[in-house]
Amino acid sequence: MLRKGQMHLMEYVLLAFFILMVIFLIIFFLMGWNIGTTSSRQHALQQQRATFLLKTFSNSPYLNKEGFKEGGMLEDSKLTVLECSDLEELVGRGIFAEVKIIDSITECEQENYPRCGVWKFCSPGNKQFTAYDTPVNVYRTLTRDVEIGILTVGFYE
């Protein structure tokens, strides 16, 4: 009789063990699903923020050539005098931007203007960042030429 009672007790212990295993598997599945949807939401928010930065930077009347209302025609003289604080005032903190004319390596400052082709604003340093690129036109004020450049904007954490 004692053996039969022990067998029933073992059956209940095994049944409880399997029920707990199923509950833990369901919990782990739900946690993984929640983490996956959270990361996809975060990625979507980063995409929206990057699109906002690209549109704001490339359509800003402070940076575009006057009379060119549709954006995408950045003026080199305006880029040369732009500083990080001005950019942060325009689009917010925690962002950076770079405009680079194709095949140019010289960083622009007021001393070497107009013999330059790279403008950098608010460098992220060693921080982790996310960046997005788009082609833009850069209007050269002194020569009245239009050159093709790459606008890189991003944000860091």
Q: Could you characterize the architecture of this molecule?
A:
Helices cover 46% and strands 24% of the residues. It has a domain at 53-156. It has a five-stranded mixed beta sheet. With 157 residues, the chain is α+β, with helices and mostly antiparallel strands. The model has no long low-confidence stretch (mean pLDDT 82). The protein has three helices and five strands, in the order αβααββββ.
Lateral strand order in the biggest sheet: 1-4-5-2-3
Give, in order, the helices and strands.
HEHHEEEE
Structural class computed from helices and strand pairing: alpha+beta
Euclidean distance between termini CA atoms: 68 Å
CA radius of gyration is: 28 Å
* Average pLDDT reading: 82
Measured by DSSP, the beta-strand proportion falls in 15-25%
Reported for the largest beta sheet, the result is: 5 strands, mixed
The total of helices stands at 3
Helix content: 40-55%
Low-pLDDT runs? none
Identify the overall geometry.
Answer: rod-shaped
Q: How many strands in all?
A: 5
